[in-house]
Amino acid sequence: MKKLFISLGVVLIGLTVNAQNFNLGISAGLPSGDASDAYSFSAHLDASYLWEISEGLTVGAASGFLYSFGDSIGMIDFDDVGYIPLAVAGRYALAEGFIVGADVGYGLGVTPSDLDSGFYYAPRAQYSFSDMASVVLAYRSVSVSGGSFDFLTLGVEFKL
Known about the structure:
By secondary structure, this protein is mostly beta strands. The chain has a single domain (about 20-160), classed as Porin (Beta Barrel). The protein has one helix at about 1-15, and strands at about 20-30, 40-55, 55-70, 70-75, 75, 80-95, 100-110, 120-130, 135-145, 145-160. The protein has an 8-stranded antiparallel β-barrel with strand order 1-2-3-6-7-8-9-10. It has a two-stranded antiparallel ribbon with strand order 4-5. Strand 6 (about 80-95) and strand 7 (about 100-110) form a beta hairpin.
């Protein structure tokens, strides 16, 4: 048991040392496309871990939680929906502070329980206003059979 705790401590210290590649973000969005009639607003939590491949280019993994609030049309109420994106992330620094990139992967439908999963993509542009924080503009979409959930989002991302 003592070896397990020591091993866990070494792993946590290693993750803390490399935490400069870990990013957390929060954003809000407005629906577009198929989702604009059925949904009113969305909130997003993002997490990514990126490795520097070359000067200005980073790639890695991204995930998070996308939650869209259902709206009412006449007598029809639409349920809130939630997705967990599982994606590959890429970022490229165009100039000092200006970054473009995209997350591409799979949007796992989690709420309601019968929600379809589908292809996820999120092109983005961001501006770093400090070493630790950026403002992010993104277009997020989960394509499912019969339509898609599309949102234009604005948020902030923190580098940890």
